[in-house]
Amino acid sequence: MNRKELNPESGPLAAFGARLREAREARGWTQDELGERLGYSGTHVSAVETLRKPPTLRFVRSLDRIFGTAGTDESFEQEWREIRHGSLLAGFPEFVRYEGRAVEIRLYEVGVMPGLLQTPEYAAAIAEGHIRRGAITPEQAEERVSLTGDRQAALVRTPLPLIFVVLDESCIRRPVGGPGVMSAQFDRLIEFAEQPNTHLQVAPFALGDRRPFNLPVTVLTLADRSLMSYAESAQQGYLERDTGSVVPLLTGYHQLQAEAPSQGASMALIDEVRKGMS
């Protein structure tokens, strides 16, 4: 039987195929035997290994189930998502992995609802706007919306992480997807604010030069109390692990929270904006 040589250095899909073959052969399984365990044909397994077919989400989740890698940093699904996230900013997939393990999340957003608070309809409307502008394909848009849901699901765990959110007023005043989408999104903000592990504030335009940040920023605290921050430019996402660089951002975030209205006052502002959009 001819055996196609694989070069994992030739690209991410080739690396995926080579890893799959290595894992399969380490178990002593033929392609047919692995396919039977997965619910696929041996021909399908061969096609994924040799790049004739791209892996699907269902396929990689089946691999993780069979190989016992589900939910780990080494999961096939994680590798698949990094391949699929080619339309995302460099650095973002790595940030998402840490976000899913953080015990405290502090984020400040400008102009658009943060992904952790977006409804599926709001996320889809944002993605559809990118499609219309030719920035991404429909397949990439579907993956982005799926990632938003996955990020939110990763935070529903025990113990629950503490999540602090400050929204610039532009986030709640920018209409996205029509009145129905916005109404559901406002419901989502209210639901979020009512959770025992969350705190939501809106930084009004009147804050002016008392606002410490001009761009979105996220600060993560991990279980070992180490800090990291994430910020984006138009071209790249940047994950900062140096504590000396992150602490000033954390200080600025505390200053922002002190300057912004309370959660109660912020919810009143959200209700006011909501009524104006209805």
Structural account:
This protein is an alpha/beta fold and 278 residues long. It has two domains: 8-85, Orthogonal Bundle (434 Repressor (Amino-terminal Domain)); 89-117 and 151-277, Endonuclease Chain A (Endonuclease, Chain A, 2-Layer Sandwich), CATH 3.30.870.10. It has twelve helices and six strands. A six-stranded mixed β-sheet has the order 3-2-1-4-5-6, with helices on both faces. Helix 2 (31-38) packs across helix 3 and helix 10 packs antiparallel against helix 12.
Features:
Endonuclease, Chain A; alpha/beta; 2 domains
Number of strands: 6
Order of helices and strands: HHHHHHEHHEHHEEEEHH
Mean pLDDT: 90
What name does the CATH topology of the largest domain carry?
Endonuclease, Chain A
Q: What portion of residues belong to β-strands?
A: 5-15%
- CATH C-level class of the largest domain: Alpha Beta
Distance between the termini: 67 Å
How do the strands of the widest beta sheet line up side by side? 3-2-1-4-5-6
For the biggest sheet, the summary is: 6 strands, mixed
Q: How many alpha or pi helices?
A: 12
Summing up helix and strand content along with how strands pair, one would put the structural category as alpha/beta
Q: Based on CA inertia axes, which overall geometry fits?
A: elongated
State the helical fraction.
40-55%
Q: What's the CATH superfamily of the largest domain, by name? A: Endonuclease Chain A
Number of structural units classed as domains: 2
- The CATH architecture of the largest domain: 2-Layer Sandwich
- C-alpha Rg, in Å? 22 Å
- Poorly predicted runs of 5 or more residues: none
